[in-house]
Amino acid sequence: ILLDKDGKRKHTRPTFSGQQIFALEKTFEQTKYLAGPERARLAYSLGMTESQVKVWFQNRRTKWRKKHAAEMATAKKKQDSETERLKGASENEEEDDDYNKPLDPNSDDEKITQLLKKHKPGGGGLLLHTP
């Protein structure tokens, strides 16, 4: 038993063996919450107190939630960037639709020139014949 400077009992942090941690982690994979009897059986089989098992599970759930939240945030960012990429691609397709439409012989030559410059570097070297 450790005492602090005032002579009061000082709480020490328990250290768990590798075997105990392994068993706790395996149990946590199966269930995130333990009912009283399950906690008592696990504590007894590992040579721990029920309180230690309870606190370990509380701490482990907190760690699990943080990791899960971080993974969800990363997945959302990835999904958002993919959505933006696809949105940009669809905007380009809409612009390409203008290029692929048949030209109206009575349309503005300036519009035709802009479309050609946009889709062919240097205007494509085409000459426009105006009636």
UniProtKB/TrEMBL annotation:
Compositional bias segments (type: Gly residues): 122-131
Main localisation: nucleus
InterPro entries hit by this protein: HD, HD_metazoa, Homeobox_CS, Homeobox_NK-like, Homeodomain-like_sf, HTH_motif
Keywords: DNA-binding, Homeobox, Nucleus
Superkingdom of origin: Eukaryota
Basic and acidic residues composition bias: residue spans: 77-90
Pfam families: Homeodomain
Cellular location(s): Nucleus
Biological processes annotated in GO: cell differentiation
Disordered: region residues: 68-131
The Homeobox domain, residue ranges: 7-67
Cited PROSITE patterns: HOMEOBOX_1, HOMEOBOX_2
Annotated Gene Ontology cellular component terms: nucleus
Molecular-function GO term, any one: RNA polymerase II cis-regulatory region sequence-specific DNA binding
DNA-binding region per Swiss-Prot/TrEMBL record: 9-68
Protein name: NKX61 protein
Organism: Rhynochetos jubatus (kagu)
Organism lineage: Eukaryota, Metazoa, Chordata, Craniata, Vertebrata
